[in-house]
Each structure stands twice: as C-alpha cells, then as structure tokens.
Queue: 3 jobs
Job 1
Amino acid sequence: MQEVLQMYVSENFCYLTTTGRKSGKAHTIEIWFALVGSTLYMLSGGRDKADWVKNIQRQPEVEVRIKTTRKQGRGRVVAEGSEEDARARQLVFSKYAPRSNEDLRDWSRRSLTVAVDIE
C-alpha cells in the first residue's frame, strides 16, 4: 500500500474528503500535502477555524484522492511544537516553496499541521 502512495509523492495536490460536522454530507477540498510512509501532512492556514479541520476533529474518518487512487484514512491534528509537527512543516514548505511565487515561510510557521494516517 505504501508503494502505491509513494508514486504520488511529487504530485501538486490531493483531494481530501471529510464528513460535514453539521450536515453529515461529504465535503472535498483540494490541498497541498507532503507524504511520509503512509501519512499525509497538510497545513491549515485557517488553523482550527477551517471547516475541514473542524470536520476532522468531529469525525476523523476521511478519504484522500491523489490522481485516480482513493484511500481511506484517519485525520488528526498534530501536537504543536512536537518533533512530528516540525518535520511536517519543513516537508510541506520544502515541497512547495520552490514552486510558489509567494514567500511561504510565514504561512508554514503559523499554520496548523494536520495528518492523515492512511489505513
């Protein structure tokens, strides 16, 4: 399963589908990610105010789609200041900073790190 995901490590974005905490309906967003093993890391510029983060906090079961591959996973907010948090921020920043016309340093520092552990 990890091998299937690894072929997508350089893709620009994934689609994350969460279950709406109020509506119960599926909500899909396009989002940047970094992949380590079977865990996808994403940064929320809206921190815990973003609907997709609130949805994960209420219902952590999610679906991730990269190109045509769909996988089920479990989302979680990464503990701020942890080693995992620092590593994830650096991975996402390193992947997207060279591709962006904007300076992503502030965004990568102030965002909330969210992980999706693929089942």
Job 2
Amino acid sequence: GSRHKAVLTADDMANWSATIEEPQTYDYHGWTVAKIGPWGQGPVFLQTLSLLKDMDIASMAPDGADFVHTVTEAMKLAFADREVYYGDPDFADIPLDHLLSDTYAAGRRKLITGEASFDLRPGKVAGFEQQYDVTMAMLGADSKTGAVYEPTMAHLTEKRGDTVHIDVIDREGNMVSVTPSGGWLQSSPIIPGLGFCLNSRAQMFWLKPGLPTSLAPGKRPRTTLTPSLALYEGRPTLAFGTPGGDQQEQWQLSFFLRYVHHKMNLQAAIDQPLFHTSHFPGSFYPRTREPGGLMVEGNFSTAVLDSLRARGHKLTVAEPWTIGRLTAARRDADGLLRAAATPRLMQAYAIGR
C-alpha cells in the first residue's frame, strides 16, 4: 500500500483476531439447526424453517410443484428480510429474536399463496421503520437492480477458483462444517512477497451510510457463507453445506426438508432435483434481481414445470444434474458415520476411514 493506499493498514492486520460466537439456532420437528449469525445469511435458513414449521411439508411430493412453490415463496420472504435487517451485530442492532419469533412467522406465513409473488416484501419491525424505508428506497423495490451505492468489482479474467465446503466428523463425534471462500482469486491475486491474497467479500457492503451493511472500519460484510450443523433430539448428528453464493441457503434447505420430512437417506436427499430463486437482490455485483425468477434443474418432470409456470413463476430450466454442490455427514446414536456428496459436475467427494 505504499504506492496505492487501500482500506487496510498494517495495524488492522496486527490487531485482528478470530472470534468464537454462539450460533443462532432454531428448533424444527425434533431437530435443532445451528447457523452463523446475521453477519452472514445463515438466519435466512432459520427464518424459512419458522415459516414452514406449521405447513404439511411431508404431504408434498419432494420433487413436486407444491414443494418447490411453497419453499420458494417462503425463501422469498426470508431473503427480503435479509436485505433490510442483516449485518454485523457488533455494529448494528439486529432484531433477530423478533424475526425468528412464532408471532412474526405467523403473520408472514399468510403472505404465501398459490401464486408466485413478484414484489420484494420484507416485514416491518417496530423501531426499524426508518431503516426499512431507507433500504427499500436504495434497493428500488420495483427495479431489477439494486446496484446503486455498491462498491463495484471487476472480473478481469475467467473465474476459475471459487468457494469450497467441507463437512468432517471424527470417531469422537467432533463435527465441523466450514465454507471457506475468498470470493475469486483472479479479482484479488496473491500479494507479491507475502504469499497470500485478500478476499473480495467487501463487495457485499453498501457505501450508503447508516445501514447494518454499510462499509465501516473493523466491520464484517454480510456474507453468503453459511455452513450448517444440526442436532437431533439434542444429540449432534448432522453437518452439511455447499458453495454457491445466494443459492447456498436454498439448496441446503431443499436437502434438509427432504431428509427430515421424506425420510430419505443423505445421498437420496442430495440427488433430488434442485431449484433456487433469483427474486431478491443478489449479493454480488451488479446486485440484480429477477422478480419471480426461479431456476430449476431439467430433471423435474414436464408436469411439474408446467404447474410452476401456471402459478406464475418465471422459469429458467437448467440442464439436469447441474445445480448445487451439496455435501453432508452424519453420526448415528451408535457412532456409525455416514457421508454423501453430490455427483453433479464431479466436484464433490464422500470419504470415510
């Protein structure tokens, strides 16, 4: 930085240390799901569970239109709240207890109908009215882009490196779920003489002041990284996750619901056709959104695709077996270890010894 000053100093690096935090958790049908706090998007998963908890997910075919539609519409509501309320809790008051409350979920659940929604609909929380108004005005709720006030980022070469995810359980029952990512190495190359690069997650800040995600010294950007751990009846049982930016939470949720409600094994739940919505502003430049947008894998049946279109979803049909990078590991009560990994694009492995 001697020739070109940036936003980091040597003191910033010297004074930084990793922190240990309590996870955010939510109880769901005998399971307790643990996620990172609102400086990431982990609570979106929990909020969506709160919306779905009183719905009969088990009665819906796991690869059927009702399942895809219901999960998608619930996700739209949770991601809308992410845009207004999430950020580093060390710098902003985050009403997460309220967002995860049964009362709040009951009111939001009424917004889910049989038709696809096209509006960005965050909930209104008492005491946060100004934050709601400022954020919605900045995003331009009726616009397809929320790129104003964003620290932009150029991709000067093809993106060849990306996020990874790892789930590990050892013989003692210790569990790790981790999603390391620096963004893209091509956008922030290795610093000559130092041997490391800086990650590019600062692009997820907003430059407009006064928001939970506004750029500030020492502050964490609201990332998309969201590993998952789950306990069954209080016993640590499951570690799972995936790379994939804004899609991480969506792919994980489909896997988890199919595993819990449809009693699939790990591999079968991962192998089910996947889908995700682009209805909300993306976390990466240029922060575009596609109201009502829904991408689905081509291995859904034609009848399901036709039903989703009839409900108003703006479908993009991807090639079969091309969406998601899910992995999962489980420890049974008797100590038996299980693992599974997506076969998609030959990028994941399940290994035991």
Job 3
Amino acid sequence: MGIDNAGRRAVFLDRDGVINRAIVRGGKPYPPARVEDLEVLPGVPEALARLHDAGFRLVVVTNQPDVARGSQRREVVDAMHARLASTLPIDQFRVCDHDDGDGCACRKPKAGLLEAAAVDLDLSLSASFMVGDRWRDVEAGRLAGCATIFIDHGYDERRPERVDATVGSLEDAADWILAHSRSEGS
C-alpha cells in the first residue's frame, strides 16, 4: 500500500515540548539530557488517552541531533522512549538522530519520519494530524499531507508559516483534533 491509503488515522507528535517538558535556554528549547530529567507535561496522559480511545494511532516523531553531535547517546534516547512507553499509549517512536548537514530524508522539516511510519503502520497521512512546538514539526506535517497543530510556547525562534491551528497545550490540540476529525471508517 502507498503512504496515503485508506489506512488508519494517526496523531504524530513531537516529543520535547509536546509530550515532555523541554529545557529552555536563551528562549530556545532543548531535550532533557538524562532519563531522570524527563518530565511528562501536565495533561499529556489524559490527552493521549482521549486520542487513543478515539481510534488514533499515536506516533512520536522526534529529531535528536545531539546523538550526531556526540553530546547524547542513542541508548539514553531509547531509554527515555521506553520510560514514556511504559506509561503512555504511544504506538511507535520514530527518531532522526542526524544533524542538519547530514542530508538525511528523516530530519524534520522533511516528512521522512511520518512517511516511514505511515508505511509501517498502514496509516492515511491525509486523515492524520501532526502536533509540534516548532516550525520544523509543522512543516514536516504539512509536507506529509497532515493537518497541523502548533503548540505555541513563545520560543525565541522562527515560527511556522502555515498551520491549521495554534494552541497552548497538547490538551488543547486533542480538543481541536477530536472536533475536526472524521470518524474511523467514514
């Protein structure tokens, strides 16, 4: 099957700043460095449960360039995902551990992470949503053909140019998704 088939609906989620608290320095968000620093944001478990119960597949798509830069180990990233998966209804984690200059197809704002998950999980990208807190997330979702939701934390960086909704939290994003999605199979 192709990547925009009659498959299931999904909500693609950035990790840092959407699911867990990002470390903000100088107005810019950074991932936590250690598993112990990983803090799930308030309301996230409930929002994810609502989306899961509505029939959405939940897929985390995250850039983790510190792995390529040598300041983070992939094992630590994987341990963070295992911890999140132990308490949250996440179906899959997709990670780009390349840096900007690596020329990969998976680093957001490219759509490669979403497209690979769509093939693997039989997802319909046009019936899916991308939730992120940075312009790269929104652009990846747009390029993949998903509806896009921007969680605005007021970072001191480039903002998305085209977005379907701007909200303040994943709870607000879940409300918007549930109000703007069609039922499974319709």
